[in-house]
């Protein structure tokens, strides 16, 4: 009985770890405030709603405040995406979740730093679980 339980537990853990997906990169380079992209570059206000098309992105509601952590440097002919997290007392369930959104749906309202680092993106920047 205990062997079957251990096997079931192992299968459940294995199944959970295989659900993660590495998605296509949106850009090869990005701008951050520090080497870990953990410092907030700026605060922005959503000009329109944005519905996330996949797990790399976050949903944004018009009027919502967004903390911007990085800005992807697009290749020619591609869209401009930033990464950040939303802040709003009305959408507490989304607070703290970080993801990408089009730079065109927000307006920067406050810059926190002008010192930035340009760096390569990694596969983990586009990891979904």
Descriptive key words:
single chain; 129 residues; mainly beta; seven-stranded antiparallel β-sheet; two-stranded antiparallel ribbon; 9 strands; 34% strand; globular
Explain what this protein looks like in three dimensions:
By secondary structure, this protein is mostly beta strands. Helix content is 12%, strand content 34%. The strands form two sheets. Strands 2, 3, 4, 5, 6, 7 and 8 form a seven-stranded antiparallel sheet that branches.
Summarize the structure.
The protein is 12% helix and 34% strand. With 129 residues, it is mostly beta strands.
In DSSP terms (H or I, runs of 4 or more residues), the helix count works out at 1
Query: What is the element string, with H for helices and E for strands?
Result: HEEEEEEEEE
Low-confidence stretches: 5-18
General form: globular
Class from secondary-structure proportions: mainly beta
Approximate helicity band = 10-25%
Largest sheet: 7 strands, antiparallel
Overall pLDDT metric? 81
Radius of gyration based on Cα positions: 18 Å
The fraction of residues in strands falls at 25-35%
Our measurement of the CA-to-CA distance between the termini, rounded to an integer number of angstroms, reads 32 Å
How many strand elements?
9
């Amino acid at each position: 009985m205990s062997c079957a339980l251990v096997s079931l537990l192992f299968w459940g853990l294995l199944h959970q770890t295989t659900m993660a997906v590495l998605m296509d990169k949106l850009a090869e380079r990005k701008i951050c405030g520090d080497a870990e992209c953990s410092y907030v570059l700026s605060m922005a206000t959503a000009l329109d709603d944005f519905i996330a098309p996949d797990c790399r992105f976050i949903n944004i509601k018009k009027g919502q405040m967004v903390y911007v952590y990085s800005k992807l440097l697009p290749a020619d002919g591609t869209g401009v995406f930033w990464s950040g997290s939303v802040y709003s007392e009305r959408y507490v369930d989304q607070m703290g979740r970080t993801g990408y959104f089009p730079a065109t749906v927000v307006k920067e309202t406050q810059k926190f730093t002008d010192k930035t680092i340009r760096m390569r993106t990694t596969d983990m920047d586009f990891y979904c679980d």
